[in-house]
Specification:
Blueprint: H1 12-32, H2 45-48, E1 52-59, E2 62-68, H3 76-89, E3 105-112, E4 116-117, H4 123-129, E5 136-141, E6 144-148, H5 159-169, E7 182-186, E8 188-191
Antiparallel strand pairs: 1-2, 1-3, 3-8, 4-7, 5-6, 5-7
Helix pairs in contact: 1-3
């Protein structure tokens, strides 16, 4: 993992490049059916270092697609291009984006900081530690896993409800609790 993940925010020119790249990858996907290829050898270090990202598409303020990766396994620019394509064409909750929708899409990119494990003694203790609007959460129970980006706090502002909905997203009942439950928190840098 790159140590750059939890240091300085990206420069404005790099942020603009990533937004333009996400849009170009979606346009490329409309005509070619694949993400836009990116050569990280031609990019400055912040854009060529491994980073974990999520790309969220909104249309008229409503979710239109969201795909990402929790682990930093690809260079940042490639991760953004791949996730933008996948958010537009592979999110199973939505039909593929059409050419007619392109001008009405808003693109949001979340750069994830490395997740940190949380320590807690009960569900109440865990919920009391949550920081609305700041924490992204990963819930893991055996093979089941789910995540909510910090932006989900806008729709679920109460910590208890945020956590209950995350359990449902991971495939668990909303009243589920276990001593083997693992929770990780992470922050994001948002590019819009």
């Amino acid at each position: 993992m790159s140590s750059n993940q939890d240091t300085c925010p990206l420069e404005p020119a790099h942020r603009r490049y990533l937004l333009d790249l996400a849009l170009a990858s979606i346009r490329h996907g409309l005509t070619i059916g694949k993400p836009l290829p990116v050569d990280p050898a031609n990019l400055p270090p912040p854009l060529s270092e491994p980073r974990a990202t999520f790309v969220t598409l909104k249309k008229g303020g409503e979710l239109r697609g969201c795909i990402g990766c929790l682990e930093a396994v690809k260079p940042l620019a490639i991760d953004v291009a791949d996730n933008a394509f996948s958010a537009a064409f592979r999110d199973p909750r939505f039909p593929p984006v059409t050419a007619e929708e392109m001008d009405s899409l808003d693109i949001h990119i979340a750069l994830l900081a490395p997740p940190e494990p949380m320590s807690f003694v009960s569900e109440r203790d865990l919920i009391g530690q949550l920081r609305p609007g700041i924490d992204g959460l990963i819930l893991q129970e055996g093979p089941l896993r789910g995540t909510f980006l910090p932006s989900v706090w806008e729709a679920l502002p109460r910590p208890g409800e945020f956590f209950r909905q995350l359990k449902l997203k991971a495939g668990l009942p909303e009243d589920y609790w276990s001593d083997t439950l693992k929770i990780f928190r992470y922050g994001t840098e948002t590019i819009e």
